[in-house]
Target: GvpL/GvpF family gas vesicle protein
Amino acid sequence: MSDEYLYAYGIIENEEIDASIEGVEGATRAYTIDHRTLSAVVSDIETMDPEQTDENVRAHDDVLQTIMFWEGGRTVVPMQFGMTFKSARPLKSILRGGRRAFVRALQDMDGMIELGVKLLIDEDATVDRDAVREFTVEQLAAASEQEAKNDLFSDRLIINRSYLVDREEQAAFETAVDAITEEYGDTVTVQYTGPWAPYNFIDIEISSQ
Model:
């Protein structure tokens, strides 16, 4: 019989969840392990070192996204990819040691989701980058709580940012994205992604055991 380890996706306020969800390394179930007022969302996997493939990363995000909206929804503090534990004991130790930080993050992120926006100049198009950037930032700032700048990894990228948005305001944010597309869609491609757990707005250092 193969050894089983616990792969952790994120932290929620104490709640029992046991759901059939496709997870990392082919897991078919996500459930919770509790410590006081916190619960960790986990799956059973057969390795301590899951490979960071596109499929696994997508599964990690998909589980978090599903839990965020499961049966009415809840706030999730996401863990980075690869957080694997030998048993429930070291995981509960993490919940105990980081309890204050987790509780604060859950309070700060209450009801929030992360949305991503990229703007890429179409090939052979000529645009006023500053004008596009200014218009975009103004539109999206009005519909979000915070923003985080990501790498401009291509010369064609004008904007690559993550936005913290109240889930009740997602429709307003999407209206702002539509306004950008309407204004510059002839020369710029707008890529809108999410909703995600708020990765870019939580700074908690965790190490697996």
Q: What stands out?
A: The helical segments are 54-69, 88-97, 99-108, 129-141, 170-184. The chain is about 30% helix and 30% strand.
